[in-house]
Amino acid sequence: MGLTSQNTPKSGDEEVDIIRLFNYFKKGFVSFFKKIGSLFGYFIQLIILLKKNWIIVSVLSVFGAIYGAVINPLLEGKEIKYYEMTVRSSALSNLELYAFANEVKNKKASSANPKSEGIALAKELGIISLSIEPVKRDEDAVTNYFEQIESNKLRGDTDTLYFKDFKLKEHKNKMADSDYAIQKLKIKAKETITTPKIMQEKLINYLNNLPGVKADQEIRNLALETYEKGVIRSIDNIDSIMVARKYINKQEVAAGGSQMVFNTANRENVERDMLRSYEIFSKKLYGIQKEKALYPEPINIVANLRSAKEENVIVNPTIHFALLGFLLSVFIILCIQFNKYLDKYEMKNA
Description:
The protein has 350 residues and is an alpha+beta fold. Helices cover 69% and strands 10% of the residues. It starts with a helix and ends with a helix.
């Protein structure tokens, strides 16, 4: 009896543990809100500091806005225009597309080759910058997935992909931007005598005649043509067999009763299987012909080059450089305050 009473927890001990738990959570909440309060205090101090140095902030912000609105366009030569274009291409062609965009971006760098054909074309067309955004469709993610399956089947390695449950979201997270078939091009260019139509033609012609892009297209077309011939041959063979079976069926009309019932059932099963195969091959033929129609060239136009408005206000030169001026003023003010702190620290410890 005495041992049982010793092992039994007392209600007072349980109440003490609950009180300690509540105190623990209370201290956590208090600590969390104290940190938020301290951050808010630092923010208020920064606002007060900027207010005291409003001249520096105003001068640099206004200068940045003037630079973006007036000086920068003058330095670039002419008025800036924005264009958009949407293209469809394979993953390998997209790599060349992204490489060209990167070349345009770094054309003023010391490492850039001024004799490069891509840089020369960008200068001719007045292209200042070229950015690319993939149009992420579920259809392209599924297509990319099954292209990997086909590639693994050719190597005899199907266990890792073919027999795995397809998870679209997981696969899309693993895809690179260049893996998507449809890409949107955003072009920033100087206003020149070149029309958007001419700019589009020269740009697409340059990209489609790159050696790597042309080789990829030739391999793709050869594979599709070989596959198409095989599918058409299978469809023709099924047609021939069906015609032959129709002729044989007419010869079997005079057969006996039980034998005729057996032949009829067997014939229906065979013909059903052949019709099912015919439907499968017809769908494959449609897919091949659709693929050939979508990719007559390595890089194909989905939406022609057209003028576009800049949707992001940060990209607007006036606002962009005004913000840069503001950030520069904040940096200068913080450096001044840090220098004052170092002076006080030096005097205190002298």
